Sequence to fold (993 residues):
Amino acid sequence: MPFSDSAAALRLDLHAQVLGDMSSGKPKRLVRALEYQAEDLSAEAMDLAAEADFLSVLREARATDRLVEMWRKQLTRWDYNENVSWSDHAPRTDARRADVYALLGIGAETGKLLDSLVPVSKAAGAVVISTEHKAWYTPQSLQGRPWYWPAYRKLLAEKGWPEDVVAGLDEATDRVVERLADPTAPEAYQSKGLVVGYVQSGKTANFAGVIAKAIDAGYRLVIVLGGTLNMLRAQTQRRLDMELVGRENIMRGASEYESDYADDPAWSQGRFATFGAMPSALGAFDIHRMTTRDVDYQSLHMGIAALESDKQEPGLPLYDPRNLHRAAARLMVVKKNKLVLGKLVKDLQKIQTPLSEIPVLIIDDESDEASVNTSDLAKPNTERTAINKKISELLRMLPRAQYVGYTATPFANVFIDPSDTEDIFPKDFIISLPRPDGYMGARDFHDLDTDPTDEERTYANSNEMAHVRSIVVEDDEDDTCLERAMDMFVLTAAMKLYREDKGGLGDRYFQHHTMLIHESVRQDDHRQLLGRVTGLWWNAGYLGATGRERLRTLFENDVALVSAVRADGQAVPASFEELAPYIGPAAIRIGGDDKPIIVVNGDKDIETGEADFDKRSIWKILIGGQKLARGFTVEGLTVSYFRRRAGNASTLMQMGRWFGFRKGYRDLVRLYLGRQEAMGKKEIDLYEGFEAICRDEEAFRAELAQYSVTVDGRPQVTPDRVPPLVWQHIPWLKPTSPSKMYNSRLVTVRSPGEWQEPTAYPTKAADLRHNTNLWTPILTSLSAEPTSLAYHFTESGVTHRFAALTGSLEPSRLLSLVSDVRWGAPSQFAPHLDYLREITTSGPAQVDDWLVLAPQHAQPARRIRIGGEGRTYSYFARDRRRDPLFGAISDLKHRGAALRIAGALADSGDAAVEEFVSPRRGVIVLYPIIESAHRAGLTDGDAVDPSRIVMAFGFVAPASARSDDGRVLRFTTVDSSKEGIAIIDTDSGPGTA
Fold:
């Protein structure tokens, strides 16, 4: 019987053999492969070696069946494979999947059923900005050698990672390793790259995969720079030991009770990787740890001896495959500390193995912290900063060393002086990792993609409403908001216990439940805060009537409302009475040991075990500063109370410990943020600050993605051209020294069918008046009454609707007008102006006309008189985020209709919008802005001095206005004799080439 237990088991065995044979290659004729394998199994197996049998099972199958899971794993691999010879179609597309089915030779119904059970993953891949590189890392080059990567991949699958996530990691790590130098090549080459992830988004998993593949390929010394603190270094060491190095390499023949992890619960629970024997006894090679969880790199004889590489063929260099693939790998995780790195440099100078023969991989975790040189080497008698100096020494000593930096805040690395060849500028590649599924990042706390009005906002459509709570205090003694945040911490703890019990998650599903209070980096402030929080805790009355009533109010007015629409299938109590029995146990679990609070402001706090998430379950309130601001993962973080100010974007973003994976409690996450925090003489809104950073980083990643597309197989942008590219958006970021300049200048940005929004408007009164007078005739020529426009986004179900005055401009007139606009930073708009000139004056021209839209508010408020005709227009309240740049100027709801009219979006059924659609029409949207300094005392309908108006605009060029060569960017080189060099001395090169 085809559906009997014995037949099912035999079928699983048969398909496992077939898929195993195809796992590292291309798809092959399925029936022929089934018949071939069935010959070695049994006569009964031959009855199952037919597509008809497979089809009959698929018709009744569920997505969780073992046979489907088998096929999911292999189909996902084929979906994700890059640069394959058997398909011309891009990975993760329906066309690629169709190629797979064609090679398998299966029928349409079989393919359709497989698609329904294993949908094609459309997840974004890694974005690569790279120089051209020599292809050496190929499946053919690795036959029979992979050991640690397959083991690591298997471990991740056993931990429950979905196959598409593992496949995505496989693809992303390939993109890194293939851009390193071939470790067996006779000529030495030093590749330097940067991998950009998200804060707390799985960067460690990526570099663990890179290390696994690199040592499989032949790299024999791996140096991981694991942060500036002992606890960060130890956290990274444990992760690599647990998931990559494995029990046998850790013990090296000793008793498991002598291991440095003997007191680690994961060690005794068997959660460390294991191979069954020493890898060298199984035909592979061992990893020698040169550091342990508790001990950083040590000098003297032990260190020197451990660094020596034994050659099987003494007459050949170590990098020769006959030596390399039989030698053990060395791994060390070292702190970014001058003394520690100094010991390593000294020991390397003493070993007998020539350093020029050792293939080395340097992984720099949080590479924008401490690693970047902050000294101006142009000044006399100036030395590199301490850590940067040691890294430079390592790179100079080890000509076969590859440097890969990892960070979530890449701007410091991108703006390293590339002309400093001993520094760590990513000259060879920049790789931007995709945002992982299930990740809760900055955009999940902001409404970036939707723009609901206050009246339209709900807990379902507004991330801010769902997750963000404002901290507004009367003075430093006002603890009202802090008390409310602590109440939320206890309430969400009860919700987690409820979900474990009633939601089927099981006891101790939530190993950790934490709240982070971050107000200052000063230890004195932490002591004072500890006293305040302790007093609030013991006076909160969580086990009594007073506390219960506060929690009831908070549940009914907050948690119940948010979880009702955002619980994503998790259990939600129908009433407070249903939750109440879990409040006492929650409070006791947090404070039952009389220690509800942990202060983390020095390594001793971790070393005493108080906040060591690896060794015990932690349900506590954490008070911390810099020690918790970068790299360190606060597990189970559910409530954050944040009032800390920071002077730059990278520092502020790295403090976002509330970013990460929140499986089972995403709806419970709350962020309490200071909205009126004093910084010097200014008052700042931290929520606005985070949103501005988020938009900057989103724009940076979007640009990398847009410009990473190759043209004729060659990159449009190489790493040396990223700095002038980003500079257009951040005018104050200049080359490191006034005596230097970028060797590349961005000339043209082609943006057919894309929303563009200049933000670098002038500040001088004369320039503002000039711009207002330029645009006033256009405003006065617009329609007397507004037209209602709308665009419906079918995927999200959201409709963006607004009213706008309308008019039209000839292309030549618009070009003349925008050419005359004055800017605070002209370089920002110049590449766009060049594109507008190109599509207007080229033969034939690529634009027929421009539709002008001036959005008008639905309410009669916020109107001003512009021009001498007495007409009033809606104005927009916007402020500069940093001189001279504004933040976002447009309203998102204005973009859909504009993009549709320019041909970039499909018809969504709005008749008024469709009337304006024309194949070669562009759209320009006008925004008269009044800054806060001029809004005070402004009455609706007032005439405003033109020097107090910022006439801003956004535009969408016709979607058809594309270049023949497909290039989006055009650069010019300042000194053509120094092509590929990013920064040159201003007195060393000729004029523009």
